[in-house]
Amino acid sequence: MKTIPYKTYLSEQQMPDAWQNLRADMPHCPPILHPGTLQPVTLDDLSHVFVEELAKQELSTEKFISIPGEVMDFYRMIRPSPLVRAYALEKALGTPARIYYKFEGTNTSGSHKLNSAVPQAYYAKQQGLTSLTTETGAGQWGTAMSMACVYYGIDLSVYMVKISSQQKPYRKAVMETYGASVTPSPSNTTNAGRAALAENPDTQGSLGNAISEALEAAMTRDNCRYVLGSVLQHVLLHQSVIGLEARAAMDSLEEYPDVVIGCAGGGSNLGGLIVTYAADKLAGKASPEIIAVEPASCPSLTRGKFAYDFGDVAKTTPLIKMYTLGSGFKPHANHAGGLRYHGMNTSLSQLYDDGLLHAKAVTQRSVFDAAITFARTEGTLPAPESAHAIRAAIDEALACKESGESKCILFGLSGTGYFDMQAYQDYLSGAMDDNIPGEETLQSGFASLPQIG
Amino acid sequence: MKTIPYKTYLSEQQMPDAWQNLRADMPHCPPILHPGTLQPVTLDDLSHVFVEELAKQELSTEKFISIPGEVMDFYRMIRPSPLVRAYALEKALGTPARIYYKFEGTNTSGSHKLNSAVPQAYYAKQQGLTSLTTETGAGQWGTAMSMACVYYGIDLSVYMVKISSQQKPYRKAVMETYGASVTPSPSNTTNAGRAALAENPDTQGSLGNAISEALEAAMTRDNCRYVLGSVLQHVLLHQSVIGLEARAAMDSLEEYPDVVIGCAGGGSNLGGLIVTYAADKLAGKASPEIIAVEPASCPSLTRGKFAYDFGDVAKTTPLIKMYTLGSGFKPHANHAGGLRYHGMNTSLSQLYDDGLLHAKAVTQRSVFDAAITFARTEGTLPAPESAHAIRAAIDEALACKESGESKCILFGLSGTGYFDMQAYQDYLSGAMDDNIPGEETLQSGFASLPQIG
C-alpha cells in the first residue's frame, strides 16, 4: 500500500477533457416521452424548452462527450477538487475502514452544482440566447447558475422555493451579488405560481412548483430557455467530472472502493460520483457496493414507484420514468434542503431497479448528528444534503469496526453548509424533528401520477 | 516563461515544516514593554496571560521554529492552499500585468486565521490547560479558534464585537456548532464590559474592548489563558506558512513578484504573506514593492503614530510599539470588519518606518466595487477584508495597462465573504458609505496614547 496523503489533487493536465455518459452503458434505460403522444421525445421537442446542445446531450448515447475549451477555462478556476482521506474521522470512530471523500464545496457556490451550471451557461451563450430561467431549492444551484451566467454574460432569473429563501436569507444576496434576479416561489409572476397561491396562500413552496414557474417564464420570454440543475441526463453527464477525477485520484493511490456512497435528491452528485464504478459494474468487471442516501422525509427510491411522471407540479414537462413519490407529493418543510424532490434521475432509477444500486433512507436528526461529528473531526462544515452521505459512511465504518473488516469507503461530500446555519441552530437547540411521511401522505402523492397506457 | 496553470498546489511533502520568523532579520525591532516598569517584558510576565510556548515564540529571535507533528496533521487537512493565477481578472481588466493570489479561504473558518488557531490550541493542550478565551471582530478568528479547540479538546469562550454579532448572526451559530461559547461584547460578564456599557449603553463594541473582556475572563478562570489572532509576533510567525507556500509555488513557476500586496488590520495575513520577500529586502537581495492596504476608516499606518500603546481599550496589555490610532480610537461601524483595529504589528510598523513597506488607505465603497469585479470574474466571493488587497491589486494592474508594463503582482486573498452578505447587500442597495474619520476623531484617539518617558 502506498503512503496516502490527506488530500490528493490531480494536476491541470490530468483533469478530464471529456464527460462520461452513464447512460451509454445502459441501452435499457427508458426514454423520455412526449406527454401528448406518449412517444419518445425528439430533439425538436426538447429544444423549445432547453438550450439545443443540452437537449442533444439529454438524448445522447455517446459514451464520451468533449468538454469545450471555454468550459475547461472555467473548470480550471474551480477544479480539480480534492480527494480527501478522512484520517481524523477514522481515528475518532476507531474504525479499521479507509474513508475517502471527494469534496466539491471549495468554490463559492458551495457545491458540485457549478460543474453543470458552467456548460449550461456556455452553451446558451453559444446559441445566442440572452437570458435563462431556473429554480433553486437549497440555493446551491441558483448560486452556481448566477456565477456561470455573469461570467458568460447571460441574464438569469431564479425562482427560489419560498421556505428556502426564508431559511437562507443570504443565499439570495449571493445570487444578487452575481447579478441574478431572484423571486421567491410560488410567486404571482406566473400562472403556475398564482395557481399554487390560490390553492394555498400560505404554501411554503416546493421544487416542483418552482420548476413550473421557471419553465413558464422561459416560454414567455424572447431568446430565453430554461435550465435545470439535477434529475436530467445532461446534468449527470456534466457531473461526471466528479467521478472521473475521483477515479483518477483513487487509481493513483492504488485504491478501489468496496463501497461508494452519495446523497441523492435528483441524483446529480451521486450520478456524477459513481459514473466509472457503475460502468465497471454494468460491464461485470467489478462489484463495488453503490449506495444512494436519501432523506426519510422524501424517500423517492426507498418508498416511491418506478413509473413515468412529470418533473414539475404543473405537469408541463416531458414524462420521465423514475422512482417517484408523484409530482404532487408534498415534502415536509424540514431541512433536507436540496434533497426535497419527488423523483430521481432515470439512469439511477434503472440501476436501482436492476439491483446494481442500493438505497438507504436516513432521518434528519441522525444526519445532523453525523454532520457535527464530521465538522468537529475533519474541520469542514458539511451541507445538510452532503451529511446524508456522511451518515451512511459513518454507519459503514462503524460496521467495519464491529466486523473488523478494513473496507475502502468512498463518499461524495457535495458541498458546505455555510448558508445552512439556521438548520444547524435548530438541530442544536432541539427544535428539529424527523418528519417521516405517513402512508396517507405517500398515497396522496401517488394519486398525482399520470395514468399511462 | 513556463506554462502557468490556473492553480498551483504544493504536494504534502513540499509543505513547510518550520515557521519563519520575520523578526529574526530585524534586530532593531522594538521590544514589548512591561507597562509598570517600562522594561522589556520577560517570559514570566507573558506566561501569566499567554500559553507558555506562545510567550516563548513572542520573544523569540530564532529564524526558523519547527512545526510540531500534531500541528502538521491538522495543517494537512486544511493546507496547502492554492496559489492562483488570476487569468479571468487580467482579461477583464485588459492588463499586461500577471496577477497571482494566495487564497486562504477554502477552509471552514473562511480565512487564514486557522493557521495560527491550530498551533495556539495545540500548545494550550500540551501545557495541560483546559480552557481558552479570545475575542473576535469579523468572526473569522473566533471560528478558527472554535475549530482548533474542539479538535484538541479545549473549552473556548469567545467575546464577539457586538456590531459584528449583529451583522453576522450565523457566525455565532458556526462557532457554537464547533462547541464554543459566544458572548457579544461589551457584556456584563466582566468589569471591562460593564465599564464600557456604563460609559455608553448603546455602544456597538470594538475589538480593543473585546480583547479587554477576554483578557479579564482568562485571568479569573483556573487553568485558562488568553489567545489572540493578530498583531502579535507569534501570530505572524504561524502565518508564515502562507508566505512560505506562496514563495515555493512562485519559485516553481519561475516568478518573482514586482509587487506584493496584503490587507492589513493587525497585520497577520500581510506579515505571513511577505515573510520571505521582506527578508530578501532586509538582506538587500531584492527590492519587491510591498504594500499594506488598510481601510480609510481605520488608517493606523497612513494616519497613525509610531508609538508605544496598549493593545486593548482597558489598557491592561503590555506596551507594544506600533503605528497606532490610540486604543481609544473609535472606528465607525462600517464593514471593514476584521480590519477595525487601532494598531499594527510591531515588525510591520518598523518595516513601514524603515521605508521597506508602503501603505495605502482605501475607501469602503471602492473596496466593494473591487470585490464584485473579482467575484464576477474569478468566481470567488471575497471577504471584505481581503477585498482591500484586491482593490490595490486592480489599481496596480490598471496602472500597468496605462504604462504598458507587465509587472508580476502577488496579493493575499485572506478569506471568503460568505458570512458578510449583509455588507454586500448594503453596498448593492447604496446604503453603505465611506466613513473617513475627521481630524477630531483622530486627535481623540491619540489622546488615549500612554505618556511614556
Main features:
homodimer; 453 residues; alpha/beta; Rossmann fold; 2 domains; 7-stranded mixed β-sheet; 4-stranded parallel β-sheet; 18 helices; globular
Query: What fold name goes in the CATH topology slot of the largest domain in chain A?
Result: Rossmann fold
CATH architecture of the largest domain in chain A: 3-Layer(aba) Sandwich
Provide the number of structural domains of chain A: 2
Helicity of chain A, in percent?
40-55%
Q: What does this 3D model show about the protein?
A:
The structure is a homodimer. Chain A is α/β, with parallel strands linked by helices. Chain A folds into two domains: about 5-15 and about 70-110 and about 235-440, Rossmann fold, CATH 3.40.50; about 20-60 and about 115-225, Rossmann fold (3-Layer(aba) Sandwich). Helix content of chain A is about 40%, strand content about 15%. In chain A, the strands form four sheets. In chain A, strands 1-4-5-15-10-11-14 form a seven-stranded mixed sheet, sandwiched between helices. Chain A has a four-stranded parallel sheet with strand order 8-7-6-9, sandwiched between helices. In chain A, helix 6 links the parallel strand 6 (about 130-135) and strand 7 (about 155-160). The N and C termini of chain A lie far apart (about 55 Å). The model of chain A has no long low-confidence stretch (mean pLDDT about 95). The interface of A and B includes residues 12 and 418 of A.
